[in-house]
């Protein structure tokens, strides 16, 4: 247990003083009776989406809470994880004053959001084995360090961070530790969600964009203590998750076996693709992946990338990221897509 953790000291003073915006849908709480709603200036003629959506997304949270074993009050939903991450920045980091720590090579949004919010981004490069350099990270911390971002499994390297390393950071840092678990459903490692109660400074983000196959609806999820979620709730736009998104998310979440089947197929394909790529002469190294993509070190990544584009296949060239010289990132596709990739690579 992190005894020195003081949430009120971390929250921006202006946010601490704010009361949440109270929308029409927030003020009147339904008691089950059939009511006539003349409170929100909506068009009264029904078409399925003429009413404002539930600002607290109660139905979606109820399903997530029961599936994940947390309280609804420990969940915040957003317009993709990107909105969730932005809310975390804005609730805790004072522009031009505070700083965060990120561990490149990693997901690009942390840096974009730090820039947007005028927050210093203190980078501590991963070690050669793509694991966090815990001592260097803790050395970078000062009294204005509000958040450490850990992406595990990490994008673009694909590996999960060692549990002992993450635990040491959680225990020795009094700010927030955000663990981005966008790829957790593809990993053999367990989610940090199981240990949420142990760490008052732990914030976990997940998304329906990857394993759940719903990148198009934009639904990001944040799990944290009730106190942290209450802070984020104060500043979130009232209707940040639209009605269509809530409906589609509910449908998908109610069919976990479908999602699971697709994930299993992607995992089988991942192993197959890794094996096939590793046989190719231009591939120098395949990095082990806990995600739905494979990072490979290759000969002349830039040229290979262009040749693949020419052949109609788009992969990601990650060569300009630290530790990722001459690397390509391959998303695992359908069996047919992966075959096509291999065929095109051979042909180039
Ligand atoms: C893809 C990805 C996300 C997903 O972001 P959404 O806004 O939820 O689509 C989050 N974090 C990482 C590391 C990712 O790679």
Could you walk me through the main structural features you see in this protein, from its secondary elements to its overall organization?
InterPro entries: Aminotrans_II_pyridoxalP_BS, Aminotransferase_I/II_large, HisP_aminotrans, PyrdxlP-dep_Trfase, PyrdxlP-dep_Trfase_major, PyrdxlP-dep_Trfase_small. Belongs to the class-II pyridoxal-phosphate-dependent aminotransferase family. Histidinol-phosphate aminotransferase subfamily. Pathway: Lipid metabolism; Amino-acid biosynthesis; L-histidine biosynthesis; L-histidine from 5-phospho-alpha-D-ribose 1-diphosphate: step 7/9. Residues 47-345 form the Aminotransferase class I/classII large domain. By secondary structure, the chain is an alpha/beta fold. The protein has 2 domains: 7-254, Aspartate Aminotransferase, domain 2 (3-Layer(aba) Sandwich), CATH 3.40.640; 257-346, Aspartate Aminotransferase, domain 1, CATH 3.90.1150.10. Helices cover 37% and strands 15% of the residues. It has helices at residues 7-10, 13-17, 24-27, 58-68, 80-92, 109-116, 134-140, 163-172, 226-235, 243-253, 256-278, 301-310, 335-347, and strands at 75-78, 99-102, 120-123, 145-151, 176-180, 202-207, 220-223, 283-286, 293-298, 316-317, 327-331. The strands form 2 sheets. Strands 1-7-6-5-4-2-3 form a 7-stranded mixed sheet, with helices on both faces. Strands 8-9-11-10 form a 4-stranded antiparallel sheet, with helices on one face. Helix 4 (58-68) packs parallel to helix 10 and helix 5 (80-92) packs across helix 6. The chain is globular, with a radius of gyration of 22 Å. 39% of the residues are buried. Pyridoxal-5'-phosphate binds at residues 80-82, 107, 151, 155, 180, 182, 207, 209-210, 215, 220.
């Amino acid at each position: 247990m992190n005894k020195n953790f003081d949430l009120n000291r971390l929250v921006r003073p202006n946010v601490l003083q704010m009361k949440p915006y109270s929308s029409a849908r927030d003020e009147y709480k339904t008691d089950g009776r059939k009511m006539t709603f003349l409170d929100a200036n909506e068009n009264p003629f029904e078409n399925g989406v003429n009413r404002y959506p539930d600002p607290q997304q109660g139905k979606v949270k109820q399903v997530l809470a029961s599936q994940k074993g947390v309280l609804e009050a420990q969940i915040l939903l957003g317009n993709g994880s990107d909105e969730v991450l932005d809310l975390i920045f804005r609730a805790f980091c004072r522009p031009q004053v505070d700083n965060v720590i990120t561990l490149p090579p990693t997901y690009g949004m942390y840096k974009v959001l730090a820039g947007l919010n005028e927050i210093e981004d203190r980078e501590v490069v991963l070690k050669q084995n793509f694991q966090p350099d815990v001592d260097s990270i803790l050395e970078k911390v000062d009294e204005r360090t509000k958040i450490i971002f850990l992406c595990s499994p990490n994008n673009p390297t694909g590996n999960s961070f060692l549990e002992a390393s993450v635990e040491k950071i959680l225990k020795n840092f009094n700010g927030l530790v955000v663990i981005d678990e966008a790829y957790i459903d593809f990993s053999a490692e367990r989610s940090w969600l199981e240990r949420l109660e142990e760490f008052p400074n732990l914030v976990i983000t997940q998304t329906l964009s990857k394993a759940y196959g719903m990148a198009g609806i934009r639904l990001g999820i944040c799990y944290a203590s009730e106190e942290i979620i209450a802070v984020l709730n104060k500043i979130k736009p009232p209707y940040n998750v639209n009605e269509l998104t809530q409906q589609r998310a509910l449908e998908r979440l109610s069919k976990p076996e479908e999602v699971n089947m697709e994930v299993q197929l992607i995992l089988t394909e991942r192993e197959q693709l890794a094996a096939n790529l590793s046989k190719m002469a231009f591939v120098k190294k395949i990095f082990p992946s806990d995600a739905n993509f494979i990072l490979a070190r290759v000969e002349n990544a830039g040229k290979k990338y262009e040749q693949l584009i020419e052949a109609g296949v788009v992969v990601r060239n990650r060569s300009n990221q630290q530790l990722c010289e001459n690397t390509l990132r391959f998303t695992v596709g359908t069996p047919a897509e992966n075959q096509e990739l291999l065929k095109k690579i051979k042909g180039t």
